[in-house]
Amino acid sequence: MRGQVVVTRIELADAQPLRIAVLRRGTPAKTAVYDGDEHPDTVHIGARADGADGAVIATSTWIRAPWHESPAEPAVQLRGMAVDDSLQGTGVGRKLIEAGIDHARTLGARFVWAKARDSALDFYLRCGFRVVGEQFMEPASGMPHHLVVRELAE
Ligand SMILES: CC(C)(COP(=O)(O)OP(=O)(O)OC[C@H]1O[C@@H](n2cnc3c(N)ncnc32)[C@H](O)[C@@H]1OP(=O)(O)O)[C@@H](O)C(=O)NCCC(=O)NCCS
């Protein structure tokens, strides 16, 4: 039986295998490296099974990047959101979102946004995001996406 799931900062090197396992299955791109991955303001927030030393079972990356509708205001883009298949639907993703939003607030962000796969759109809606604009195809995955944004109170 799995032990406690711990939400924690993780290293980029720990994020990448899970990104590839979950987000690059059957997709045109086989790697998952993002602009800003190594920027000092970027954080990788994940979850470990079985306590702080356990295997990484969820990952998310939070990168400073302007929200196009309000480019002068501080904003953070969420990228590489992935939960291990065996733990999807158990509340881990929502915990990562809340931890990432807390981080975005420390940077003074007014917006957190993402390019959401349509297959995960309801997850973002359940987590307080709203959909903006039309559907688009994202080349790395070859999947339909929408922009989603969550506004943070001042
Ligand atoms: C999408 C993903 C990150 C969500 O994380 P998760 O841990 O499975 O989600 P949670 O268990 O925290 O779910 C939170 C809520 O969203 C809903 N939800 C989660 N995934 C969903 C999905 N794919 N479609 C519809 N609703 C979803 C849950 O039912 C739950 O609803 P509730 O508010 O009624 O409880 C995860 O399922 C995943 O990694 N999926 C495959 C990769 C992917 O699509 N990543 C996103 C790329 S943009």
Chart the SSEs and their pairings.
Layout: E1 6-9, H1 12-23, E2 43-48, E3 56-64, E4 75-83, H2 92-106, E5 111-117, H3 121-126, E6 130-138, E7 143-151
Parallel strand pairs: 4-5
Antiparallel strand pairs: 1-2, 2-3, 3-4, 5-7, 6-7
The structure holds coenzyme A.
The site of coenzyme A has 19 residues, from helix 1, strand 4, helix 2, strand 5 and helix 3.
What's the short version?
With 154 residues, the chain is α+β, with helices and mostly antiparallel strands.
Account of the protein in words:
The protein has helices at residues 12-23, 92-106, 121-126, and strands at residues 6-9, 43-48, 56-64, 75-83, 111-117, 130-138, 143-151. A hairpin with a 7-residue loop joins strand 2 and strand 3 (56-64). The protein has a domain at 6-110: Aminopeptidase (3-Layer(aba) Sandwich), CATH 3.40.630. 31% of the residues are buried. The protein is α+β, with helices and mostly antiparallel strands and 154 residues long. Strands 1-2-3-4-5-7-6 form a seven-stranded mixed β-sheet, sandwiched between helices. The mean pLDDT is 95. Helices cover 21% and strands 34% of the residues. Bound molecules: coenzyme A. Residues 22-23, 81-83, 88-94, 116-117, 119-120, 122-123, 126 line the site of coenzyme A (COA). Coenzyme A binds next to helix 1, strand 4, helix 2, strand 5 and helix 3.
